[in-house]
Design a protein that fits this description.
It is a single chain. The protein is mainly alpha-helical and about 260 residues long. It is about 65% helix and about 0% strand. α2 packs antiparallel against α3, α2 runs parallel beside α4 and α5 packs parallel to α8. The N and C termini lie far apart (about 70 Å). It is found in: Membrane. Its main location: membrane.
Length: about 260
Amino acid sequence: MSAERLNSKETNEPGLPFHEPSTPLPHSEPLKVPPHALRTEITAFIGEFVGTFMFLALAFAGTQIAVNDPGYQSLSGDNDPAPDVSKLLYIAFAFGVSLAINVAIFADVSGAKFNPARRVMRMAHTIVAQMVAGIAAAGFIAALLPGPLTIATTLAPTISVTRGLFLEAFVTSMLVLAILMLDAGPSKPMYVGLSLFVAELCSVFYTGGSLNPARSFGPAVVVGFTGYHWIYWLGPLLGAGVASGAYWVIEFVRHERV
């Protein structure tokens, strides 16, 4: 067969096998974390730390100012059975506005959770960031402002540990439900802040208004732990679980096809 016919046959028979240089299969390569994913997680950690620190430091400062006012009356009724409503409003406002501002700032950075009781994804390193930030914020306010640190969450003498536990769970469930049910948008930080504001109004006199393990853990590390400190972990976790369950049921019923 001539070279011309051979070449013609090869060009006219596209089905002839053609072998490419072999390449290793994808699964044979070692697994690597994409650089962009690592940067995303580092950014989330930094965002949670800075956001939690700023949120709690501002709220702690407002609480410290209210409680250490020269005309001080015990918020928990130790010296006067009647609550000092003006101080309670001051503290609740400080917490609510601080949360609203920092959620607006850090929502696009880390999701702006600032609360270990709400974590599902990225649980390990964001919880570490929040707890360390809570300690740092308490230590910062203790060093920055004069007077003893009086921002620790404690129960009023008139409420039992069990009631305190369920009050913390109830107000936390309201806060978490507001976060889950509201669509993301420019107004969401305001509504989240308002939900914390009303939750603080309903709980700060009796329990100190924790709603957040990081909020209670930080000051406790600085000034000492109470024997019932565990309620500030279990209560918010129970409340977050109830809110998540209610949200799941609502979404299931809403999107269920008949």
